[in-house]
Amino acid sequence: MSEKVGVKNYLISYLLNTEVVIRQDKQVVRMMVLLLARIAKLSWLDDVDIKNELVPRLSEILIKSSSDEHKLIGLQAIDQLIVEMTYMTKMKNLQINRRVSLSFRDCALGTIYQNNLEYLKFLLEKFNNEFNQNSPKREVTANSL
């Protein structure tokens, strides 16, 4: 159990470090995200820190990061977590898979949905601001109508 917690803490701190993650090979980052999601699933019912802390920590990447590449990695991490939690693991029986999936849905999925909606709102505002700055302003006159 302590190995899972140690690896989880290392992976989260690694993913939160913008400079390191962006320079790393995409395959390595994808494997680290997959490992974090797998650890989260296997210890979801056993470790309270994973249940209460993992989603807010991954959401920090979307909120605090200034790099768009790093934010994309944060979205990939959250996506992989959702996929892993809903996927049936062959190592565990069906009842445990369902319990983990339902617990994840009750504890974290609403927060993920809310955070992603806020992030989409931020992206739309950013897109609109950039579009308005780059588009030539023209006056609407009666003759142009």
Percent helix range? over 70%
Distance from first to last alpha carbon? 70 Å
Radius of gyration: 20 Å
What is the H/E order?
A: HHHHHH
Count of folded domains = 1
Characterize the biggest β-sheet.
Answer: none
Structural class: mainly alpha
Q: What is the multimeric organization of the chains shown?
A: single chain
The best one-word shape is: globular
Give the overall average pLDDT. 83
Could you tell me the strand content as a percent range? Answer: under 5%
Number of strands: 0
| Unreliable residue runs | none
Counted by DSSP, the helix tally is 6
SSE map:
Blueprint: H1 2-16, H2 18-23, H3 26-42, H4 48-64, H5 68-86, H6 94-134
Describe this entry's structure for a reader.
The chain has one domain. Helices cover 79% and strands 0% of the residues.
Summarize the structure.
This protein is an all-alpha fold. The protein has helices at residues 2-16, 18-23, 26-42, 48-64, 68-86, 94-134.
Defining key terms:
globular, 0% strand, 145 residues
